[in-house]
Structures are given as C-alpha cells and as structure tokens.
Amino acid sequence: MEKYQTIDFLGEGSFAKVSKAKDLKTGEIVAIKKLKKKYSTWQECVDLREVKSLNKLKQNENIIKLKEMIRTEDLLYLVFEYMEKNLYELMLQNQAKKFSEAQIRYILFQTLQGVTFMHKYGFFHRDLKPENLLVNGDKIKIADFGLAREIRSIPPYTDYVSTRYYRAPECILKSTNYNSPVDIWAIGCIMAELYNFKPIFNGTTEKEVFFKIASLLGSPNINNWPEGMQLAKKCEIKLPICSGMQLNNLVPNASKEAISLLSEMLVWDPNKRSTASKLLQHPFFTNNEIPTSLTDGFGNNSNHNNSINPMDNLGNGNKNDKTFKSFSNANKQNINNSNIFNNSNSNKSKVGNSKNDDDISKMLEDTVGFNKCNLY
Fold first, then answer.
1. What's the whole-model pTM score?
2. CB 3.0 to 4.6 Å from 293: which of 17, 66, 72, 138, for a disulfide?
3. Domain spanning 99-306, CATH architecture
C-alpha cells in the first residue's frame, strides 16, 4: 500500500471502508476499498464473488474497473478507477432543473449496456440502485458487485437482496430461486425515479413497499403471477386488494414510449419481464437519437452525428477511464430488512384489517398517484 497516498475518506459500509488515493508513481487518482474481514490466504481473496465477477466483466465500458488487489497483514484492498459521483448525488445536484427525457435515455442506455453485458456473461447484480451507478463526466458505470451471483449458480439464494426501494416482489415474498429479472425490476424503479426525482416504491418496511407495488400494478393473482400466489401462501401472508393504475399517472412527464419501456420492466411475474438486450431494442431507444454525452444533443433529433446505436460496443473496453468513486455514504434510506411477515407471531395467518394495515392503506391513499389498497 506504500505506492498510494490517501487523499480523502469517501465512505464506510457494513463490510468495507472506501478512500480516495493517489498513485505516487503515476499520479493517477483511484478509489481504494478496504474490506473489514480478514483473509488468511490469497485464494480466499481471488474467490470473492465481487472479484470473480469484475475480472470476467472487465471488458465492458459501463462496468467499473478493478485495477488491482493488494493483501497485506490479512487485510484485502481493492483498487478501483475513481469516479466523480454516483447517480443519486447527480440527482441531488439537479433538484431544481431535473433531467430531460434525452438525459434519462442517455443514462438508461449506458446502464442497460452494462447490464446486457453482465447478464450475457453469466452474472446478475442483485443490488442495482442510483448509488451503485457511478458517473464521471459522460460515462455511467455499474459498481459494487458484492452481492453479484452467477446466473447458472444453483439456488437457494439468500432471501435478502438489494435495497428495499428497488427490491423485486419475488424477493419481498422470500423467493430463493430468483435470477436476473431482479435487475430488470430495479432498473424500472430507477427509471421512474429519474423522472420524479424520488423513489416510487419508498417505504419504511417491506410491507409498505409491497403495498405500493400492488397499488400501481394491481393485485397479484393466479393469472398474472401464479408463483407469487404460492409464495404468499407459503409465507401465510394476506395480499392486498388493489385495482392498479396507469403508469403515466405516476410518471406524468414520461413520453408514451418511456411508459411502454417502463411497463416491460415493472411486471409482477419475473418470467414476463423483458430482458436487458430486448429493452435496448425498444422504440424508446431505436426511434430516438441517443446523445453521446449528458449535455450534448438534447432535443436535437436531426443531429445524427452525435448519436449511437443501442447495441454497439457491448464488449469494448474503455481506454480512457481513469476515475472512480464507489460505495457512497450518501444513502437516502436505511437498508432495513424488515419482514412483511412476523415468524414469532402465532396469529400471523389472521392478519385481517388491523390498525397497522389501515395505517398502510391510509399512507397509500395520501400518496400522490396511488390508490387505496385493502387486504384479502
């Protein structure tokens, strides 16, 4: 670690601390993630999911680059390229103006390029959210692969995955054989947030989040999500009765093509959600020019020289990226793994319309754009 000089402390999570540092030989600025767990052998380090996934995905320009690993005194340091900010911080900086749809298209395009490559080469992220989409100038990169899994790995998986606001309904209902569609759901949540500048499924518990999903999509049933009904029955929970609503009422500033794209991601049944590669072929991208930067070409549909093909460069490495900021400490919500079921409650199968349920329905009714939900 003598080759690096620490410049600033960037943040700390449950498993690591991240600092900004300078390579004393080259002058390059990097981000160094110091893991809190101790590793007695080098093989343990190499076998980490985050390391394995990043090494296999390093050729894509929309996935963060792991530059090197350093193990000293049983402590592991991961050295990354440094990025200026994350997407959440970018939204904070633009609260007054918000994003144009062209900017949103640009951000989603780069994100889906990275996710398409990730899924193509056998990994799904499991924790996509604005804080894990890093921004440096005009480049968007996916970071924090600590929860990444191989698509072909054998379930069961942990039932706790992703930050609550972006958690797919199958994960809320404790499925243990979920897969890459959880990433598609998260991107749908992020897309809506890029328009509204606030999470659409924000809630202090998983139950609140689930009720908000139901109030938007309508109640899950045997026709639109048979597996979900089985999961709910297995967990002995009461599902909400909701009529659902039109997506354009919740995201009023989105175009018809944007609403169509969103509707292919926010789907109860994970098997019916679109794939990242198919989403890149959606008219939201193919019928509109995609600017090559976050600032150029917005609103100029005649500028064909400043656009890119949605399927180009899926495997091209980025030769000039030299900066990275990961694992921001600027969290807009607690990552609370509150269950929507209480295993210690002997009356859990008799949920009924309790005061707590009424409070949730009242909360949903008071939320702009959401309908009231009751319980079966």
1. 0.79
2. 138
3. Orthogonal Bundle (1.10)
